[in-house]
Design brief:
The complex is a heterodimer of chains A (316) and B (327). Chain A has 316 residues and is mainly alpha-helical. Helices cover 76% and strands 0% of the residues of chain A. Chain A is globular. By secondary structure, chain B is α+β, with helices and mostly antiparallel strands. Chain B has a single domain, classed as Immunoglobulin-like, CATH 2.60.40. Chain B is built from 5 helices and 14 strands. Classes of the chains: A mainly alpha (316), B alpha+beta (327). At the A-B interface, helix 1, helix 2, helix 3, helix 4 and helix 5 of A face helix 1, strand 1, strand 2 and helix 5 of B.
Chain lengths: 316, 327
């Protein structure tokens, strides 16, 4: 059962296409936090005569930090709602997803309390993302399954590097695992390029034009004078080092834009919010907040898939 | 209190939203972050004896290493580097002194910068300054979050080479004077012209272009060539340091640490270098569990675990695909 504050009006045939209020709010606040705290406050140093803008900079940074804390609180509420909703779907696959998401929430909470060590939290996060992506793949159409799989591969390759290094710190011996980062980079770009496959139906021409524009701007940002900053932001925010040709990142940005706008315009707003959460969370292990965004994104896709499944079954 | 008409029926939603904002504000005010870092972490274990500055000391055998991947520096002009793919880092502490040992492959020992076309091998660690309230930008910090940098240079450790060693065809009759005044860089206090100051510098920065030597220079460092074509460097500094604005360490505390390496033979200098992301430095109150070579059993178990989890994930996907009503 949805809590009344989270339930959306007009639950109907396309109910699963709309995210709950709390998931939608989480996606919006996470994007604001990504744009202001993780991006603006770290690029404002390029603005000439920044000392003359110290106060506005402080206010914007303060707003970004508040958005971060608000997103953390929203994430806790959203995860609780998503776990209950997945469990309420009453299919084994959705319930498996609920158990996995609940397991992540428990381990992340134990990590915050100092009960679980870094290695346990890291390994549990990678496992949760892989298993949850599997559940999403099972309940979604084949395009979405491929996209979720590519994301899980990228996250697992990147996260496995961190886990192997944590193992070394626990006495497991020195392990050279940086090749996993390259595999994660390729899979991460592949996820973004393939993401339009999530859209059920045709993506409109105007959406493609918009996506092409974003892709060209991104490509220009990677090859132009500011290319160095673009790559460092990609590394900082998304966990990708930007070692592939600039064209790949332009195509990836175009793909993600086409996906989010296409999903939104086709009424699949839950999937659009989920994709936004995956992008805000990034690839690999950064902190339990960003990992939580990824788990919330995958769980949102799972809820949408389970609802679509129920709707299709009911129509027979 | 009477709510505006447009809020009729939404009282619980409004109350909930206000509660969320209040909790978020409370967390920000109290600076309590419920999220924990999941970046690569390096644990500084307690050493049984003083590691000293010798990177070849046996004390380091007990410390487990972490491999920090490096990428080309892409943050500022002149971007470049990337010829050093990985640094192996170890950390220990002894009697409230932090020791960090770094080892990396570099087949050429570039220790002289006498010629203008020569550049030195070097390595640096970057920490958030004590005054930083949040994790600062890895690129020399930011306006509200400074960074503290420790740099070791091979040429500063080696000392000056006689110019006739480098320019073998040169003929020098005599220098008229050997007073400091005639060596302007040395007289001006340029640390690179005063090798007796040691190979290590402590620097502070709050943005690009603001990098400058710290008022107090209390970081020690020493590098040696080890194995076949490797540098090993040890940095050491007391936990608290002499300057309160610089990075501080304590048993049980964590901080962020980034690594940069310069490969002189590849033309690396200034911003042209190989850089890591921040790793989390964890100062532990216990002794090291012991460092081994590659523990095959641990690696095999980890690989089996990952493959097993991936297999279960695929199994869930296949099972879910065969549930009734796939769209």
């Amino acid at each position: 059962m949805l809590p009344s504050w989270a339930a959306r009006p007009g639950v109907g045939p396309r109910a699963a296409s709309h995210p709950s209020l709390v998931v939608g709010a989480l996606a919006a606040v996470a994007v604001f936090e990504l744009a202001v705290l993780r991006t603006f406050s770290r690029t404002a140093i390029h603005i000439p005569a920044l000392h003359q803008m110290a106060k506005p900079y402080e206010y914007i940074s303060f707003a970004g930090r508040f958005a971060y804390f608000l997103a953390v609180v929203l994430l806790i509420v959203a995860l609780q709602w998503l776990i209950r909703t997945c469990w309420g779907a009453k299919t084994p696959t959705a319930r498996a997803g609920a158990v996995v998401a609940g397991g992540f929430a428990a381990v992340a909470g134990a990590g915050a309390l100092g009960v679980a060590g870094n290695l346990a939290v890291d390994a549990a996060t990678v496992a949760a993302v892989v298993l949850l992506a599997g559940a999403v793949g099972g309940l979604s159409h084949r395009g979405a399954a491929l996209v979720a799989g590519l994301f899980a591969c990228a996250f697992a390759f990147d996260g496995a590097h961190t886990v192997f290094q944590a193992l070394a710190q626990e006495g497991g011996g020195s392990i050279r695992s940086s090749w996993l980062l390259t595999a994660g980079e390729v899979s991460g770009v592949g996820f973004a390029v393939a993401s339009p496959l999530m859209v059920e139906g045709r993506i409109g021409r105007r959406t493609w034009v918009l996506a092409a524009g974003v892709g060209i701007i991104t490509f220009a940002a990677f090859v132009g004078a500011g290319g160095s900053t673009s790559r460092i932001l990609l590394l900082w925010n998304e966990g990708l080092s930007g070692t592939m040709p600039s064209l790949a990142y332009g195509v990836a940005a175009a793909g993600l834009t086409a996906s989010v706008v296409g999903l939104w315009r086709s009424g699949q707003t839950a999937a659009a919010a989920a994709l936004v959460l995956l992008v805000a969370g990034g690839i690999g292990l950064h902190n339990t907040y960003q990992s939580g965004l990824v788990i919330a994104g995958l769980a949102t896709l799972l809820v949408a898939g389970a609802e679509d499944r129920r709707r299709v079954a009911a129509s027979y | 209190m009477k709510l505006p008409s447009w809020l009729n029926g939404r009282r619980r939603t409004v109350v909930f939203a206000v509660a969320l904002l209040a909790v978020a504000g409370g967390l920000q005010f109290a600076n309590v972050n419920p999220a924990v870092s999941q970046s690569v972490f390096l644990t500084a274990y307690q050493a049984d004896s003083d590691p000293g500055l010798n990177p070849a000391s046996d004390v380091w055998n007990s410390a487990p290493p972490v491999q920090a991947p490096l990428t080309a520096q892409a943050g500022v002009y002149a971007a470049g580097g990337g010829s050093i793919p990985t640094v192996s880092a170890k950390a220990l502490h002894y009697k409230n002194n932090l020791y960090v040992r770094l080892e990396w492959d570099d087949s050429t020992a570039d220790e002289s910068t006498t010629r203008v076309q020569d550049f030195s091998d070097a390595i640096a660690l970057e920490f958030p300054a004590q005054t930083a309230s949040t994790v600062p930008s890895i690129c020399m910090g930011q306006a509200d979050g400074g960074v503290n940098i420790w740099q070791w240079r091979a040429d500063s450790q080696k000392g000056f080479k006689d110019p006739t060693e480098v320019y073998t065809g040169a003929l020098v009759d005599m220098y008229p004077s050997k007073e400091a005044l005639f060596y302007t860089a040395r007289a001006a206090g340029n640390p690179y012209a005063n090798h007796e100051l040691g190979p290590t510098q402590t620097l502070v920065a709050t943005t690009f272009g603001s990098l400058s030597p710290a008022a107090v220079q209390d970081v020690k460092g020493k590098g040696v060539r080890v194995g076949t074509g490797k540098w090993a460097v040890v940095f050491s500094r007391p936990f608290d340091g002499s300057d309160g604005s610089q990075a501080r360490f304590a048993v049980g505390a964590k901080t962020d640490m980034a690594i940069a390496v310069w490969n002189g033979s590849e033309g690396d200098r200034n911003g042209r270098k190989s850089v890591s992301q921040f790793v989390t430095l964890n100062v532990a109150g216990m002794s090291a569990p012991g460092s081994k070579g590659i523990n095959s059993l641990v690696v095999v178990l980890a690989v089996i675990l990952f493959v097993g989890i991936a297999g279960i994930g695929v199994g869930i996907a296949v099972y879910g695909a065969h549930e009734e009503g796939r769209p």
